[in-house]
Amino acid sequence: MNENYPIPAQTLIQTLDELFSHLGEEEIAGLLRQAEASINWEGQDNWDGGKDFYCLNLKIPVPAFASIDSKRAAVEKALLQKVGAVTRQFDRDVISRVIIVPDVRVTGAPGAGQLSPDILRRIWEGDGLRLFITHRAQDKLAAVELKTKVAPYGVSGFVAHQDIEPNQVWQSEIESALVSMHALVAMIIPGFDSSVWCHQEIGFALGRGVPVIPLRLGADPHGFIGRIQALNGDLSNIQALASNLVDTLLKADQTSAMMRERLVLEFEHAKTWETARLLRPKLVTVTRFDGGQLTRIEKALTENQKVATAYGVPEAVNEFLAKQRRSISRST
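The chain above was modelled as a monomer; its predicted structure follows.
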């Protein structure tokens, strides 16, 4: 595991600034000149010798952030594409995300780059996509069940009232989870609006620019998240809620690449027939797997016996792979 990216963040930013300037993309180049950059380790994939994944975080002044807010996802996508081009020599150290956030200062909260791998491992179970689940204390059991249901898809949930160790200062732990999360989901249950803490957690997520997903569970979202499309759900069927939540993470620009990679990893390493069957409908609806991921999915059908013998899985996945190959063949 390499916790430090091979080149400093500032060196990468200077290279990108020069590249975008030569390409005539002065708006993006200007943002890079104003950015406070950090490259943060996010996890590891042990497949084929191992890879470390990182996120390039760009913190820019609030006025600059406001100027690109409507097209931020497109700017992040353009940056990620060029990052891949200029760092391709580091094939074992992959920057898989670029996030642009406003320079929001939160007293007492550490920056994500200051969190050690030990802290990240303590707060988040596994190397999955980090999902902060904000909820009222009274709804802890439902939040814990949601965390359990999304785990097989490669999502590591954080439930404050469950995941804080007794010997840890609880507010510090919550802040550490907030600065290192990849997305936040808000369980909007009647009475949610009365929770000051839930609103602060949502505000933190919005300030960082990570996806915020409201779950409408008997109440409507209000305030800052009132304009965000909410997922309708029912606490009597949290499995369906978890499945819809994963679909949303697969569609969101900031989380889609990581979510696709986690699905492939979970499928490769499925330990039960139930897990293989659970992942099948998600795998066969994704249209943006790269060639390496498709090869790994195909290998899992023969190398993982739980996958190979799970009822209905090999047939459905082979059909999906055949369609993907035909699509790739037509586009080349």
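The domain at 112-251 is CATH 3.40.50.10140 (Rossmann fold).
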